[in-house]
Amino acid sequence: MPDNATLTPPNEPEGMIETASLCRHFHVGDSWVHALDDVDLAIDEGDFVAVMGPSGSGKSTLMNILGCLDTPDAGEYRLLGEPVNSLDDSALSAIRNEKIGFVFQSFHLLPRMTALENVLLPLRYSGRDSTVLRERAAELMARLGLADRLDHRPNQLSGGQRQRVAIARSLINSPPILLADEPTGNLDSRTSDEIMGLFAELNASGQTILMVTHEDEIAAHARRLIRMRDGRIEHDSSTH
Ligand SMILES: Nc1ncnc2c1ncn2[C@@H]1O[C@H](COP(=O)(O)OP(=O)(O)O)[C@@H](O)[C@H]1O
Ligand SMILES: [Mg+2]
Fold this sequence. Notes:
binds magnesium ion, four-stranded antiparallel beta sheet, binds adenosine-5'-diphosphate, six-stranded mixed beta sheet, alpha/beta
């Protein structure tokens, strides 16, 4: 056997996200809500995962922790091999900006800014040449079907277009992982299908995606399905 037999082979998918016994509790009234209860999860590079489960089962809590918008009360979270638990606020915000794209159900666009300006937001402190950045943003937006919408404000766009702008914004820093919490929750079914087509294309070109949805038709676009219940992973199609 060669000496390096224990090393990970070069074409083995890299561990993108790993959690061990992740817990998040909320004190509500006189009792504790176990929003996340001992969650072990591994997401590999190139995965396209749908997270499903009843309302209140912990899906958003999980996404917020994975997106470094919230921190667990117990357990471990490694992102790209790095333990996130021990990082301070500035390190966390750097990770949020560079390693994670986050897409929300309600788009979270700034209403007074144009679509292009919204997409450029994550780059505002990059100190890089603004002409180059604008070109890059315009290119990405064209790829997402927004070539003729750069100067529109959010209220001049359809729901599907707003979500495309939000997706462009989430991808402008080429984050290794895209997290989406009910990205089609405010869209009609045709527009939802278009957004899922886009996710499938992004995933085919290598983008790792983890999305929450409560619709079977939406989840069917993903390649792996995780079901949550009462803060736990009840089923994971990659292990069953
Ligand atoms: N900030 C909070 N304060 C108190 N309880 C919360 C908070 N966030 C979530 N919860 C509770 O944690 C549980 C899981 O919530 P959530 O992750 O939003 O579920 P889901 O996204 O699956 O609907 C629910 O019982 C919810 O009420
Ligand atoms: Mg939720």
